[in-house]
Write a structure and sequence with these properties.
This protein is α/β, with parallel strands linked by helices. Helices cover 44% and strands 10% of the residues. The strands form three sheets. It has a six-stranded mixed beta sheet with strand order 1-6-5-2-3-4, with helices on both faces. It has a two-stranded antiparallel ribbon with strand order 7-10. It is elongated and about 95 Å long. The two termini are 52 Å apart.
Length: 419
């Protein structure tokens, strides 16, 4: 850089304001830029300058060197500490002589992408658990290295260029007084059979209502049953509710919902009374009473079914997809996070989600069965459910579910017009 014409602070201010008083030359490597910084600081006697003039010099060096303000400040501080000892300003860092060994290969990243795509990119602990199951339970040698992948490094791999090149995703949110049902939170006391239920509307279009998804999930084991109805009137809802309760492998003892009229009505109360199921509803100013079902709406229904309008006439094929393919995948192969309750020094109960608490609903059901906290329905055994889960790998079942979902969406999603 030819800077002989810049001799005063005023000239530097004119240069920063847009004056072309200086011409640049040279390759612009670090050694040249360090030398340029040292010459400018020495020529203008930086330590003796006032605060305003120092600021002008720092802005000038930032502009001419290309370094950030923080880097220029660090270099100036080092120059001041070394100038009495006549130590020149130079780079102090270099590349390692031997690069770090790479543990996870491009093939491992491809396997991680495949697992994430099949399971709709569930949280890191769940994917890490699936990778362990792929190698430990199903004996797939390709997952030998990934079986030891930590959750923190899993997120590092998701941020890597190799992962991002293979995986892209797009996303885009936003709900009386009645004597029916007991206004209280369910009290399962660690037993399976106390379910929570909520509905999700698939949107309106041109004044036409879309389908409604019904999410029903057990409060302890997180065993989940999804269903779909044309509307939430009793003509559509009651038959589906009876089938939903029948799809649980254990006896349902409690039925909890919010205060919506689709569930708090005499017809549903009569059905539950016939099945000897206790009906409860959420309390005022207790938004967490039905939080589990609402969270499943976001993490399962919206993730897989989206937000776009689906006409009511497709409720039947969606229901068939749920019952035959989607619900078995949810309960036998999709891991969930289960909280460990810890009481701190102040007596407050805190939830902690540990890696060892990640398990599928079936695995949780097996633990509850060993403790005698679940009553299976007639004709259903834990061994039969476990055999069904072992018949196919988690990845194979997830991929089959994705194919079935693609076939389903092809029936009611109109192809985009080409420009």
């Amino acid at each position: 850089m030819n800077e002989t014409r810049l001799c005063t602070i005023e000239q530097i201010e004119q240069f920063l304001a847009g004056s072309g008083a200086v011409a640049f030359s040279g390759s612009g490597n670090d050694a040249e830029r360090y030398g340029h910084i040292s010459r400018v600081l020495a020529r203008f006697d930086y330590p003796r300058r006032g605060k305003r003039e120092r600021g002008v010099l720092l802005r000038y060096l930032q502009h001419t060197s290309g370094y950030s303000r923080a880097q220029v400040t660090r270099l100036v501080a080092r120059w001041q500490s070394n100038r009495l000892a006549a130590v020149p300003l130079a780079k102090r860092y270099r590349a390692p002589a031997v690069p770090f060994a790479r543990k996870y290969t491009a093939a491992d990243v491809t396997l991680l992408v495949e697992m994430d795509q099949a399971h709709e990119a569930v949280c890191g602990p769940a994917i890490a658990h699936l990778l362990q199951r792929a190698y430990g339970d199903y004996g797939d040698a390709r997952y030998q290295r990934l079986a030891g992948l930590s959750v923190s490094h899993l997120y590092n791999l998701r941020k890597s260029a190799g992962y991002q090149a293979q995986r892209t995703s797009f996303t885009k949110t936003h709900p009386v007084c009645n004597a029916i049902g007991l206004r209280k939170a369910p009290a399962p006391e660690g037993r399976a059979g106390f379910v929570r239920i909520d509905s999700v509307h698939q949107g309106d279009q041109d004044g036409m209502k879309g389908v409604y998804h019904i999410t029903c999930v057990d409060a302890v084991s997180q065993w989940q049953v999804e269903s779909c109805v044309q509307g939430i009137s009793e003509a559509f809802l009651l038959p589906v509710l009876e089938r939903v309760i029948a799809q649980f492998p254990f006896v349902v003892r409690g039925f909890h919902s919010d205060n919506g009229s689709e569930f708090i009505n005499h017809q549903v109360a009569k059905l539950l009374e016939k099945l000897r199921v206790e009906q409860t509803k959420s309390r005022s100013r207790h938004s967490n009473d039905n939080a589990l079902a609402e969270s499943k709406n976001a993490s399962v229904v919206r993730k897989h079914m989206g937000y776009d309008h689906i006409p009511q006439k497709y409720a039947k094929p969606i229901n068939a997809f749920y019952q035959e393919t989607f619900n078995p995948w949810l309960n036998l192969h999709r891991p969930c996070l289960f909280a460990t309750l810890i009481t701190n020094a102040k007596g407050k109960i805190i939830k902690r989600y540990r890696h060892e608490d990640v398990k599928t609903p079936l695995e949780c059901l097996a633990r509850l069965s060993a403790q005698g906290l679940v009553t299976f329905r007639d004709g259903i055994t834990l061994a039969a459910l476990q055999a069904q889960a072992k018949s196919q790998t988690d990845l194979a079942v997830a991929q089959a579910m994705q194919r079935a979902k693609s076939d389903l969406f092809a029936r009611f999603v109109k192809p985009r017009r080409q420009a």
